[in-house]
Amino acid sequence: MELLLVFLIGLLYSSGIYLMFRRSMVKLLLGLSLLGNGANMLIFLMGELVKGEPPIIGKSVSMFTGAYADPVPQSLILTAIVISFGLQSFAIILLKKVYAITGSDDLDYLNVQDQDI
Amino acid sequence: MNANIILAPILIHLITAVISLFLWGRVLPQKILSLIGSLLVLISSVLIFFLNQKWGSIIVFAGNWKPPYGITFVTDTLSTIMLLLTAIVGLAVSIYSHVAISTSRIKFGYYPIYHFLLMGLSGAFLTGDIFNMYVWFEVVIISSFVLLTLGGKRMQMEGAVKYMAINMLASIIFLTGIGILYGLTGSLNIADIGTKVRTIENQGLVQVTSLLFFFGFGIKSAVFPLYFWLPSSYHTPPSAIAAIFGGLLTKMGIYSLLRVFTVIFYPDNFMLNFFCAIAIMTMITGALGAMNKKSLRRMFSYLIVCHIGYLIAGIGLYTELAISGVIFYLIHDIIIKSNLFMMTGIIYKIRASTDMRRLGGLYKDYPKLSFVMAIILFSLIGIPPLSGFWAKIPFITESIHEGRFVLLAVILFSSFVTLIIISKLWSEVFWKDLPKPNPTEIDKFAPLKLYEKISLVFPVLLLASITLYIGLNAGAIIKVTDKVAYELLHPDIYIESVLGKN
């Protein structure tokens, strides 16, 4: 399972970076969201995968015995997902607005203001 | 003494922003509220600074969860200085915005977002938890996206795409670093990570993680290979917004670098050489980029990049004196860069342009204002006894002591280039005759009412007098920065204050 996740994370990062290098704005956006998902998966993996052991102390015992699933990475991921949701929705609106103004989704056409020095 | 007072800057900004949201579309109440909020933050920041000087670190455990489990808010001298500077610049820009930001922008939520931005900055300076720092960074960047695009002109949109893409990338790199660090140490509290990182056997992995942090924060503070977003976005929003961005946002990255590379990571020789190389390239590219620019705001954007190089160079030297210099330069730079952009805003108001070819004769028309601007520009170059001079001495002496002569040469070179640029600016903008014969037609500054003029000039005057104070009373400032440098290079002080003595 860990090995599968490692490959998945690698795939998400590499395809995210690749898409960011393309000139299309939509691909830029997709690349950013893939990268964000890759980072979330990485945090998930870093918390070490434990199956079927929720971090809840039973009634009969007073402390944890043995391995249990680490709740911290999951809460980190939840926070990161919410944040990236906000950022990505802003990014989508921004790119839509840019498309409406410039009439192109090619990033190379966004250099009008850089021409005058 | 109640320790919760250190949360006051965050809470006051939050409350101000939320009440402003309820006053949606009502310009005057929002303006007054923003002024009151910023003043209260300044008062509480001054209080926190002096409390911290007197009693040492103040710590708040959120929800009373003791570290390393809960989120902690910690002050040390560095964070209180940053808090104080944020409050000062925040107040100045808030006053300046009264006239400098158009009514339509205010109606679309300028003030609430402005206070959310300042809240994020204060939070990032106070937090003692690495993931919480990430969250504050996100608060700051999402607010800055909105401020950057408010108004929706084509130029702003183009700048915003670059700004957004590269800043989101930086956040993801930062998040990746946090993930790996959590995997290595199983903790998120900065002080706790600091103690655990030292016991890890695989120090190679730690170095790689530190590089991730360096790039995450480096992109945010616009260091060499990845600074292009800054000059292509900072000149697009109104001057008030550019002032707060130019002064504080890049410095937030430097603050985090200082924090992470003293408490968590110990840069080895390779990392220090790497820092110095990056600093050299940043200074050279920033200086050369600024040289051929005709628009004032573009030029200042490149100067921000150039002067970030000094700060990185100081971190690269990593001696107590050099770090003290970094803190001094940080104080000087935050005040001066904000002031430069506000000054440019006034020039734009007077001449309806920031292009040097279309400017001129300012000294003849506005001699008193020009005198104030001269103080700002001379401090930027570092003419003794103004503040930039004292800030650069430690870099020069330390690079001689450490035997980094290339770095020394580049520091001198970029200071020299700054001198050339500013003297060119002075002769073009202030001494040269105005190319257009009728300056009164385009002058939107003279017909303003008295209180409007005060609202534009007072913040510039305030920050200029602070610059003068820093320069003329450098001894007192150096005492504080020496203390910061001592604390930073002895991270046990920070760790003990958070985790308690073992």
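Chain B has a mean pLDDT of 91.
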